[in-house]
Amino acid sequence: MTENVVAIADRRNSELQHRKMYIDGNWVDAISGEVFETINPYNGQAWATAPLAGPADVKKAVDAARRALSGPWGSMSAAQRGVLIRRLAALIEPHADELARIETTDNGKVIRETRGQMAGLPATYEFFAGAADKIFGDTISAPQTNFFTYTRREPIGVVAAILPWNSPLFLLASKLAPALAAGCTFVAKPAEQTPSSTLEFAKLIDEAGFPPGVFNVVTGAGDTGAALTAEPGVDKVTFTGSTATGIAVMKSAADHIAEVTLELGGKSPNIIFPDADIDAAVNGVMAGIFAATGQTCIAGSRLLVHESIRDAVVERLAQRAPQIKMGDPLDIETEMGPIAFAEQLEKVRFYVDLGVSEGATVVCGGERPQDTDLADGYFFQPTILSGVDNSMRVAREEIFGPVLSVITFTSEEEAVQIGNDTTYGLAAAVWTKDVQRAHRVAHRLNAGTIWINSYRVLANNVPYGGFGQSGIGRENGIEGLDAYLQTKSIWVELTGESRDPFKLG
Ligand code: NAI
Ligand code: MG
User: Fold this and answer.
1) Using a 6 Å cutoff on CB, does residue 403 contact ligand 1?
2) pLDDT cut 70: percent of the chain above it
3) Separation in Å, CA 303 to CA 298, 351, 402, 404
């Protein structure tokens, strides 16, 4: 290296924000000392680094989490856990804006949305803080009347959470808040594209006063995640991401009989009947596919529209989509930010080309924007493909970008059939003013969440999860808490009489 290159490298290095992992209450580098860079997708520049954790770092975190189970955390009352979680919620509030900026810089999601997500985090932690002391067992009148029989709901143990890059802290909350309420301990592995907000968040955990080892963060890519799911000290793996990786995670968890919750991909249908409020439906379609640049598991990526209103709907969409304001995701005016990273941009481009080669027509978009001020970012135009048949790959595979496939139907029966003709089953929407049809179709669609005359609405107390290959288990709500508990049955003999030792009692 010439002196000049070294100088440039040093300068660049000093401009990067260097974060540390949080293991057993300590701020640490990887044992190897290795780090990786995270790229700001708005300008393609590295802006921060995080330690690259290897198996030994991961083991250290899992061991710390195991020890914490039998430390002060394990002997706290549920109400005391609630107090700590509530303290965390209160600490998030004044830092919400900062967390939003950090996350937007990592993944390019517009600040409008990350701000809203961060502002909503305290409520999720509060919901589960309030639930902590409402975890009850049962007393059961067993047929053996000489026994008093009851159940306890105990924490499942050490939880490993593997997270994606599209909504790091929002998705972490629906795993961490119930896990803490249940009394579990936790090791989080954020995505390699977005380690920064989770590491920043760990400072608030530290400040809230959780005992060391209750919450740990290890950073790295798929290898780090694989080392975590393989750790025999992990009792439960909760994962959000692609179905392909979900399969690998579940197989790895099976090797040591760890429980899994999987929140995977989708190819959700947005179904518009002829009697729908077309303006509202078009707005819902926009929300479903162009919000968050289409990078959401619940993206309404298949528009199923009745043939009689197809032209009217597509015309309105084609008018609105090109008007979406793309730009700096940190600007509150921006509606659509860049794609989160370079490979993902290539994936989106690949699918648009594939759709065209399969016979679809590009109604609008289909390429990167021409504006020179967007040239450095991983932007892609809001894209509508019409003439799509549900058998085409663009209608079957998750693109995870701003690409809508328009498919027509002629009857309610056919709409349901096409809607359900997918390996996924995460979400769906039904647009109609006919209340009977709305419920009838909602009941027949195979998906974990159905919206009627709306799209992309979630809440921390409403269960959320997938049918089919969209996942296993539910997050949020009371079911989301159950996912971190296991039941112990206790039998108390009341009479002191002896029994036949060679017979099941
Ligand atoms: P991914 O599912 O591979 O990554 C998600 C997380 O899993 C990351 O933290 C990653 O480091 C980790 N991981 C990767 N391989 C692992 C392994 N063998 N064991 C344990 N952890 C592992 O998703 P990726 O590569 O970021 O994106 C690929 C596609 O996945 C996207 O184009 C999109 O279609 C889909 N996706 C879906 C999401 C959803 O919310 N449904 C979220 C992110 C991606
Ligand atoms: Mg991957």
Assistant:
1) no
2) 97
3) 13, 16, 13, 7
Residue-wise burial string across 15-40, b where 16 or more C-beta atoms lie within 10 A, e elsewhere: eeeebbbbbbbeebbbeeeebbebbb
Task: Quote the ligand 1 centre to 238 CA distance (angstroms).
Answer: 13
Q: How far apart are CA 461 and CA 123, in angstroms?
A: 10
Determine the pLDDT at residue 37: 97
**Tell me, what's the pLDDT at 372?**
87
Write the CA distances from 283 to 170, 183, 350, integer angstroms.
Answer: 24, 42, 27
Q: Which residues of the chain have pLDDT under 50?
A: 1-2, 4-6
The CA distance from 242 to 93, in Å, is: 31
Biggest CA–CA distance in the chain, Å, is 88
Residues 306 and 316: their CA atoms lie apart, in Å, by: 15
Q: Measuring CA to CA, which residue among 196, 221, 191, 166 is closest to residue 17? A: 196
Element (DSSP H or E) covering residue 304: strand 302-306
Q: DSSP assignment of 229-258, as one string? A: HH-TT--EEEEES-HHHHHHHHHHHHTTT-
Residue at 411: amino acid letter? S
Decide: 107 in ligand 1 pocket, CB within 6 A: no
Q: Reduced to 3 states, what is the DSSP secondary structure of residue 433?
A: coil
The DSSP 8-state label assigned to residue 335 in this structure reads S
245 CB less than 6 Å from ligand 1? yes
What domains does the chain contain, in order, with CATH numbers?
A: 7-264+466-488 (3.40.605.10), 269-452 (3.40.309.10)
Under 8 Å between Cβ of 298 and 456: yes
Instruction: Give dist(CA 244, CA 251) in Å, integer.
Output: 11
